């Protein structure tokens, strides 16, 4: 297959490129600079440089493939505009399309499934109307919603927990650390993208979670070693991390990823606790 995707140089996207190339697929990575093009080539993709906010250009590139996936994120105030442009391009191209979401859109929930009611925190509330547009498209569409992704030295846990030390060297918790996080290794996420793209059929939403849902305290203790952990109030976490980001990290969530397993997916990466213990 020829797969066309955005985000091929990012944390998750580069893992997806490697997984697709290893499985024998040809990958076109849509990028916005020559520097990014060089990075895409290193992962085995053929880059196409252009303006991804230009729905016409992106649609033409998507139409050149057997399927398309959107994994990129700007991380800035233009995030909504960017996603809207990519979705418009996907609709214009008409090929099977895979969109990227995240576990936070379900809010606090001890047993998240694809049919659970949406209750996103302010940080990700913008996703709901965009994803509604994806699901209403007249073509096969799927929305991959990973849990908290980790592995290969990256992801939120590595950025939030490992370096967060107080004056005594203890790892700072987010709140009191009693909340659970859904977790999934980045290489396992990449396998799900491959399976969904190879099917070419619309699967709707798909929760991608390993079924291992540690508490933040358990994760911080693994990162701390013998240094110990330091709880803080929700207000202190908001002041330290920013209100919207902290509120997302304070969500208490668990998921099994049962629907993803029906595709033949078996997560095999080391657990997040194991990774944090190993530094």
What report would you give on this structure?
The chain has helices at residues 11-22, 34-42, 55-63, 79-93, 127-135, 156-160, 186-199, 216-224, 234-241, 243-249, 258-261, 272-277, and strands spanning 2-6, 26-31, 46-49, 67-70, 97-100, 109-112, 141-146, 148-151, 154-155, 171-172, 183-185, 204-208, 229-230, 253-255. By secondary structure, the chain is α/β, with parallel strands linked by helices. The protein has a domain at 2-152 and 184-209: NAD(P)-binding Rossmann-like Domain (Rossmann fold). The chain has a seven-stranded parallel sheet, sandwiched between helices. The protein has a three-stranded mixed sheet with strand order 9-8-11. A two-stranded parallel sheet has the order 6-14. The mean pLDDT is 96.
Q: What would the keywords be for this entry?
A:
single chain; 279 residues; alpha/beta; Rossmann fold; 14 strands; 38% helix
